[in-house]
Amino acid sequence: MTRDSSTGRRQFVKAAGLLAGIGATGVAAGDAEDTTPKDESGDRNGDGGETNDECLFDGPGFVTVESDQAFDATVEAIENRIEQSPLTLMTTVDHAANAESVDMDLPPTTLLLFGNPAVGTQLMQSSRSTAIDLPQKLLVWCEEGTVNVTYNDPEYLAARHGIEGKEEVIETIADALRTLATGENGNDTDGSSD
């Protein structure tokens, strides 16, 4: 079967244009307005402090923590924690602003991508498929007034990619992600989160 090279070229150009458009529409998280409502007590979900289970990701491999700060303050705090660590913040994607740019609505949803190649490379050396899940990501999202931070569970990723013999690295990454998401120092963010 002979393939028309001009058809293949048109499909490639369409795909390249789509990918370029996706990359060009990224909006900095700091440009978004804080829309997190609070009740009179300062509670973000309005139900006396209980987490709204409907807004938690319940699939395998996710770790979700509730933030005690407003949406923009949560994003800023995470960015500051990354900057104060040996990690590199690669990009921040404001999905809500991107949705707005095409006249669609999405509650506040910002993705931060960051990492440390010295650590991530170790995982990719163990299993090259790990590269699909790196760099690390933190998703800050708001649903019904509750601000959440979600990230991939490193132990789940190790199992997914068949990584063995890197338990200490995986544990260090898990501690770093928890610290970045919550601000609580289990172990210091020593740059091991990639």
UniProtKB/TrEMBL annotation:
Pfam families with a match to the protein in the record: DUF302 (PF03625)
Superkingdom as given in the UniProt entry: Archaea
Domain DUF302 residues, every copy: 93-154
InterPro entries linked to this entry: DUF302, TAT_signal, TT1751-like_sf
Comp. bias intervals (Basic and acidic residues): 35-47
Transmembrane segments: none
Region of interest (Disordered), residue spans: 26-54
Record Gene3D superfamilies: TT1751-like domain
Protein name as annotated: DUF302 domain-containing protein
